Amino acid sequence: MFNTARMALFAALLAGVAGPVFAADFVEPPVVEQAPPPVAYQEPADFGGWYIRGDIDYHWSEFGGGDYTTYSGTAPQNPGSFASGSLKGAFSAGAGVGYQVNRYFRTDLTFDWMGKSDFRGSTNGFCTGGTVACTSTDTSSYSAMLLLANAYVDIGTWHGVTPYVGAGIGGAWVKWDTLHNTDLDGSFEHTGGKGWRFAYALMAGASYCLTDQVKLDVGYRYSHINGGKMFEYASDSNVGPGYDHGINVHEVRGGLRYQFGRSDCAPPPEPYVPEPVYTK
After folding, report:
1. Which of 17, 114, 159, 167 falls between 20 and 30 A from 206, CA-CA?
2. The whole model's pTM is what?
3. Could you give the domains of the chain?
C-alpha cells in the first residue's frame, strides 16, 4: 500500500511538470509578413511638355558683298560692285515657345529682333564727268527680325548640364537704313531696301538646371540670311538699285527656359518600400 501511494504521488508530480512543457510546445510563434519587393522606378509618361524661353545675345555680322548699276545716257549700263564692306556688332533679344518631346528631342518657334549693325563700305568708279578715277565712302546700317522653326537633340544630362545641337529654318525681315554715298562729286543718298528673305541657322550649346523647372541656356548660333535689295535708285547720282549678296551672323546667346511639364531637372521620386507588418 505504501508503494502504491508513493507511485501515485510521483505520477502527480510528473504531470504537473510535463503539462506546461507540452503546452509551451503548442504555442504558435508570431507571424511576420514579408514586405513586397521594391517597385522599380519608371519615367512618368508625362515627362516633357510645353516650355517658353527668352534670350539675349551679342552678334557679329559679315557682309557678303553687293552689286549695283550706274546708269548713263546710252546703253549698255555699267554694273558695279562694292570694293569693301563691313558690319559692326550689335545686341539682339528674342523669345519663343517650344515642346519637349522626350528627354532627348525638343522643338521650338523663336522670334528675334536684331539691333542695328552699322555698315561702312567703298566703291570704285569715275568722278567729274567720268574723267577721274575715284573711290566713294558708303555708310548705312541694317536691322532684322528673324523667325525660325528649330529642332534640337539634347545629348544627355550630367550633373544638371545638358549639351545640345540644333538647326532651324525660316525667314528674316531685313531693313537697310538710308545709304550715304560720298565721293569727289559730293554726297548722295539712297533710300534703304527692305523685305523678307529666306534664312536658316545652326546652333550648339548647353543648358543648366537652376530649379526643377527653370534652365539657364548658353550657346552659339550661326545664321545665314539670303541676299536682297540693299538700296533704291537715286536720280541725282544715276546709281541704283543695289542688292547685297547675303549676311552671315555669328551670335553668342544666353537665356532662360521655363518648363511647364515635368522637367529632367526634377529628381526622380524615391521607390516606395513599405515597412514590415508584425502580427501576433
Report:
1. 114
2. 0.77
3. 49-145+163-259 (2.40.160)
